[in-house]
Amino acid sequence: MADTKFVPRVFSGIQPSGGLTLGNYLGAIKRFVEMQEGEFETIFCMVDQHAITVRQDPAVLADATRELCAGFMAAGLDPEKSILFNQSRVPEHAQLAWVFNCVARMGWLNRMTQWKDKAGKNQENASVGLFAYPCLMAADILVYHATHVPVGMDQKQHLELTRDIAAKFNHDYGVDFFPLTEPVIGGAATRVMSLRDGSQKMSKSDPSDMSRINMTDDADAIAKKIRKAKTDADALPSEFAGLENRPEARNLVCVYAALADMNVDDAFADIGGRGFGEFKPMLAELAVEKLAPISAEMSRLMRDPSAIDAILAAGAGRARDIAGPILRDAHEIVGFAG
Ligand code: TRP
User: Measuring from each residue's beta carbon to the nearest atom of ligand 1, which residues come in under 6 Å?
Assistant: First the structure.
């Protein structure tokens, strides 16, 4: 249970590192929209400071930040209801991250699997920022006293570290100041796989564009990619359990269910027993119906970058109104004078 003394508040972030896919949409953004319509105050951040933990081309980074914001809004995030902004415009994140750098232990960060994966064998040459990445992520969340954080399975360890940092801060300073944030992980297609290889995650960095559906793909591209998606020769089974060793078929079924807002068992009432000659056109039609309007709206929004910048600036102002007082209290607890 999340702590009841805190306002129910959702925070999540996505790196603007270019190219939003169906995986980002179904795994994250679609769930953000659902949470926006619920009981929560919702804050969604384009984490450009996390992006530069590995090399980014400056012009590409700025455009990718605007494109991510366009993707958020096209998918249904409303800047009146949710706070949308980019991290670098709210300096309180980096300021609290410094305090957390002094709370977290080297050993904790050394155990992070994302650090080990991204730094690889060449840790000596990785940036200090990549190592300290989880402290900034904890600050993103805790500078708002956020109680719930929707993330993919791959971020679970970072959320546990966020709780460890909150608990150690509270313990070391003898306060009950930071909440122990709950991860929110789940949904029919939290992990969307490549259309060419059901054992690989759908990724913007896969060399084959046919392996993914981009949020900017138009109706023809979406339909073609689904038509050409890899499958096997058998018809679909009558229930989900029958897909166990059929990763490509399983992925397409999960995507269908997620786009149709159904759980997989209910989806089988429509699709169980059908061959791919029937199922793929059904999936293509559904995907075009749900995704083509989003990509059209994204390109409309991207035609006016200054309007997006104005939305980011307004969101940053609202974010600072919440983060400022919390950072001030944290500084006082730590013993910073003034
Ligand atoms: N690390 C997250 C990812 O790569 C992005 C992120 C940064 C984030 N700060 C966050 C997610 C705070 C949730 C909450 O997906």
Answer: 11-13, 15, 47, 50, 137, 140-141, 149, 151, 155, 158
